[in-house]
Structure formats: C-alpha cells, structure tokens
Design goal:
Layout (H helix, E strand, L loop, with lengths): L2 H12 L7 E5 L3 H12 L3 E6 L7 H7 L5 E3 L4 H5 L3 E4 L8 H8 L3 E2 L2 H6 L6 E5 L4 H14 L4 E5 L15 E5 L2 H5 L8 E4 L13 H9 L7 E5 L3 H4 L8 E4 L7 E6 L2 E6 L2 E5 L8 H16 L4 H10 L8 E6 L2 E5 L6 H9 L5 E5 L12 H7 E6 L4 H8 L5 E3 L3 H11 L5 E4 L12 H18 L2
Parallel strand pairs: 1-2, 1-4, 2-3, 4-5, 6-8, 6-9, 7-8, 9-10, 10-11, 16-20, 17-18, 17-20, 18-19
Antiparallel strand pairs: 12-13, 13-14, 15-16
Helix pairs in contact: 7-11, 7-12, 11-12, 16-17
C-alpha cells in the first residue's frame, strides 16, 4: 500500500492526520522504536516518553533520530496533555495514571498492531494463548515458507509487526500477547487462534476472566476461528455464526491424535497426516502445537503434505523444551520460556516418567497451589530458585522432596546429584525471570552453561 492509502485509512479509523495529530509513543523498547520509524516515514508529528531514566535502546535511537523529542525518567503529564493519540507499548500498563488521565481528556489509544493492519493488503494469521504461541507461530511461518509464499513472521515474537512491512510479504503470521490485543481494535485476521488460557500476567490483568477477554479480541472480524476443544475457556469463545476449525489431543476433532495399529498419528478428519513419532519435539503439548499449526495452515489453503514436511524438519525454539545434553544417561532439558504455571504443567504432562524439576522465580501473583497436583504426579524431586521459591514450597506442602538453591549453577549441581541414568532434569520455572535474570533467555543460557560445565567435568 502507498503512503496516501495508509494515511487515509488511519484518518478514517483513528482520526490520525499527519498535519494535525500529535502522537505520543509510550515506551522506548523494540515496539516503540518500530512505531517511531513508521510515524517518521509517514511524516507524523510525534514524541517518545519512557518512565525509565535510561531505556536500553536510547543511545541507538538518538543516533537514528536525533531530532525526535524524547522524555525519560517518568511520565511527565505535560507530554500527555498535548497528545491527540497515544501508542502505548505492550510493556506499559494502560492503568498508569498519566495514561488514564490522557484518555479521560480525549486522547485516543492506537496500537502498533492497529497501525500495521492499516498498512497491509496481505492476509494476516493471528496466534495467541498462554503457552505455545511462539512455537505455533514459528511452525506456521515455516509451513508458509515451505509452500513458496513470501511470509513475514513476528509481532510479540522476534520482529515487531511494523518492521515486517519492509518485507512486502504475501502473508503475515503474528504472535499477539494479551497486552497487544487489549489495545487493538481493527484486527480482522483471515484465521486466528487462542491456543489455551491459564493463569498468567495477573499482576497486570484483574483476574483470569479479564485476561481471557483480552485474548478473545483476536477473534474480532470475520476470519476462521481455530479452537482448542481441550480447553473449556477457549471453547467458550466459539461463535455459532463463524467458520470454525477445531483441534484436540484428547478427543476427535477436525485435527486430532489417533492410533492406527500400534502407531499414533496426527489426523485430519479420517486422513493420517504423519506419525506423531516423526515430530522432532518432546512432549504431548507440542503435538497440540503441531495440530494447531496444521489447522491454521489448512484454513489459509496450505498443502497438507508440504506442512507435514515442514513439521518433520522443525528444530524447535531456544529455551522451549530444548534438549541441552545427555550426561551419564541423564537428559537435561531447557524450558526456561515456561514463565507461567500452564507452561510448566504442559511440560511436565509431556513426560511418561517422573522428572527432576528446577522451578521458581517471580510468580507474578499467580496461585502456586495450581502446580501441586501435576508436580505430585510427575516430579521425583523439585529444586527451587528465585524470590518466590518459598511460595512454591508452601504450596507443595511436602508432597515431593524439595531442595533450595541460591542460583542456577547450584540448582544444576543439586539436580545432578539427584538424577539417575534414564531420568530427565527439566528447567521449567513456572515463573518469570526478572527477579534474578535479564529475561527468560538469560535464565536458559545460565542453565545451559551450568549443564555444559557438568559435561566438561564428566559429572
């Protein structure tokens, strides 16, 4: 789309006008920088504000846009008072007092996803959920690419949506978080899914019901709804007047698992697509992810055999059920991306025999009692780290032996002493990482380093 067509859509949908609008971009992270480049390209008047005194991208940003007004070290209400529109980054809560006051005074909220939607003619596939959305987004992206279609993959994962515009792709596959969805109003994806809903981000959302409502916004519009019938919260989102494709790992659906002879297959109706054993990922939750990707792919017209070949080649994502090493018969698995209870539960349920679990961190207000049943069933020992370790220990209430560690290296050492040949040590924290690490990637890398150090010492 050319700039004139884009600005016309922005004016119709949001009253955004390069001549008269004053846009305040709230948050100088990856999303904020992508928004700034976009607005600059369309010649909008804008400024940026960040509550942090030294946002991590500020130096790089000043080199690229030295003339852009940037306010840091707090939310100066004067900057909000002159803004006609706010583009608030997902990392910033809409409950900030300065934002609430600006909205009350007439400022309009626009998301980077809104801006993106107004700038593309190509179909958009949208993926959300508490767990698995990055895996499914990447799977589907690789399927689309294998089908010979130029694809842009990003959003909450990897490349910010607005930066994908440079690709001029023929299809876009976007991972969207609840924070992105809550401030997005014009998304109309050709196919969309909420993979699952479990307690997450309850430090930002009032309760699970509100969190689910924000996820449900992904289904606005007229596109195909891809529904996980194993999740009652997701199933309740289904609309009678919309075309729906279902998937399940527990029952018959449009896409499901079934035995044919002594082998379990990924199925589409009565057709065997591929043996589950050909999927190169650990855990049955990854079978659900594969079925979701297949359902989305069929919804946008992809060939089933091409999709299955892409699944067979899929390498998985770093820090998501990633096998780090096998040492003296013990398998070490990095699932640091499990930043909430649902992800940890899914990881544990994928194992047929009990594992040694390393967990803990910042619980983000979640009820750790929800972990107890699956840990009792699937964990032989638990090693706890992080600020909410005691919270988890109290919730477990002695149902399994629990050990405490001050850091990841110590946790790995303890786990090595507990694990026997044929067993697995699983880092699946069920918590955020910000109490001890930069992010979940940093936490996973520390785990990997500690495990590889074990290997070097021959432990």
């Amino acid at each position: 789309m050319n700039s004139a067509a884009i600005t016309a859509l922005l004016k119709v949908n949001f009253g955004l006008d390069p001549k008269s609008s004053k846009v305040l971009v709230v948050g100088l992270g990856n999303t904020g920088v992508s928004v700034a480049h976009y607005l600059q390209g369309l010649k909008f008047n804008f400024a940026i504000i960040d509550s942090r005194a030294n946002p991590p991208m500020m130096d790089e940003f000043f080199q690229q846009m030295p003339d852009t007004p940037v306010f840091t070290g707090g939310f100066d209400e004067a900057a909000f008072e002159v803004a006609t529109h706010l583009v608030v980054s997902p990392g910033v809560s809409l409950n900030e007092q300065a934002i609430i006051k600006a909205i009350a005074n007439g400022s309009k909220i626009v998301s980077d996803i809104d801006l993106f939607v107004c700038s593309v003619n190509a179909p958009i596939v949208a993926i959300s959920g508490s767990n698995g959305k990055s895996t499914v987004t990447t799977m589907l992206g690789e399927m689309v690419e294998a089908a010979g279609i130029q694809v842009g993959v990003g959003g909450n994962l990897g490349t910010p949506a607005l930066d994908l515009l440079a690709l001029n792709a023929h299809m876009y596959v976007l991972e969207l978080s609840s924070f992105q969805l809550e401030r997005t109003s014009v998304l109309n994806a050709v196919a969309a899914t909420v993979l699952n809903v479990s307690a997450d981000h309850l430090d930002r959302h009032a309760n699970l019901a509100e969190y689910a409502r924000e996820k449900q916004r992904i289904f606005r519009g007229t596109g195909i709804m891809v529904i996980n019938v194993d999740d009652p919260v997701v199933q309740a989102m289904q609309l009678a007047d919309r075309k729906t494709v279902t998937f399940s790992i527990n029952k018959t659906a449009d896409f499901y698992l079934a035995y044919q002879g002594d082998m379990e297959y990924l199925m589409h109706h009565e057709s065997c697509l591929m043996p589950l054993a050909d999927l190169p990922l650990e855990g049955r939750h990854n079978a659900a992810n594969a079925l979701a990707a297949l359902a989305l792919g069929v919804s946008v017209g992809l060939d089933e055999q091409i999709m299955c070949e892409a699944l067979r080649k899929f390498k998985g994502l770093s820090h998501r059920m990633q096998r780090v090493a096998e040492i003296r018969g013990v398998s070490w698995v990095n699932d640091s991306k499990a930043t909430n209870i649902g992800a940890c539960v899914a990881a544990l349920q994928g194992y047929a025999r009990k594992v040694i679990l390393i967990a803990g961190g910042d619980a983000k207000g979640a009820d750790m009692n929800e972990l107890t049943p699956v840990i009792k069933e699937k964990a032989k020992y638990v090693v706890l780290i992080g600020k909410d370790a005691d919270l988890i220990k109290q919730a477990l209430n002695g149902c399994v032996p629990v050990y405490s560690a001050n850091n990841m290296e110590q946790a790995v050492q303890i786990a090595a002493g507990l694990a026997a040949a044929g067993e697995s040590v699983l880092l699946s924290p069920a918590c955020a990482s910000i109490d001890q690490y930069k992010n979940y990637q940093d936490r996973g890398e520390k785990f990997t380093q500690a495990v590889l150090a074990l290997a070097e010492r021959g432990q």
